[in-house]
Amino acid sequence: MSTISGGIFTSHVPGIGNAIAKGLQQDPYWKPFFDGFQPVHRWLDRVKPDVAVVFYNDHGLNFFLDAMPTFAIGAAPEYRHEDEGWGIAFPKPYPGIPELSWQIIEEVVESEFDPVMCQKMLVDHAVAVPFELAWPDAEAFPVKLVPIAINTVQHPLPSPKRCRDLGLAVGRALRAWEGDEKIVVMGTGGLSHQLEGKRAGHLNVDYDKFCMDNLVSDPDALLKHSTLEIVELAGSQGVEILNWIAARAALGDDCREISRNYHIPISNTAAATMLVETREAVSA
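^ Protocatechuate 4,5-dioxygenase beta chain, sequence as received from the core. Prediction below:
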């Protein structure tokens, strides 16, 4: 049977991709953030997952404001990154695992969700940057990708509870998968930031620490605020915490925090990284 080994939660700021492309990982501005991935690299080297299920938000690459699904799940044999105008391009392909994608889709639909099913799908910086952070020296990515996009852009947005329930359904599908793969779940985006309007540059350290302090021990605490309240607290892009909420739910109840890192600002964003390990990984 498959094993859900753990979860990686991280920011996906395009500026991080530019820093990687320019080799700025040791630059004083970027080093505190990149150093937070050292425990992640050690954990990945030890666990060696085979599949990455990634909860993220699309930034207009596949879906624009005229056609924005609440949830979309990739079921393609391969995915490619395409630059959205940031001047970064990551050429390595992302191999898919369509059979697992369809099992997830079937469980999600059985759980009364209605995702868009994408047998062709591009991925933007919300997937590409975390993969480059996790496997910086890989000639080819060592994991197969299942991308799950959550709308955090066009209102009305899904509620935190709805995203939690989506994650629970995905977790059920992963535990029912009859393959022997080790699975890492990723939640990308955030934390607090707003890129436009009168509150451009908005950060909320207290809310960010509230999320990080409760993500593992009391994830339902993150459901206390409505989506619009999260926008008020964390900024219009800080609502990407919905991706973290869904990813955390997929891990199940029995897990522990391995490491965390928090650094501000990174390109007007409160950048964070957390590594969580499940009991399944310890006993596997």
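The chain has one domain: 3-283.
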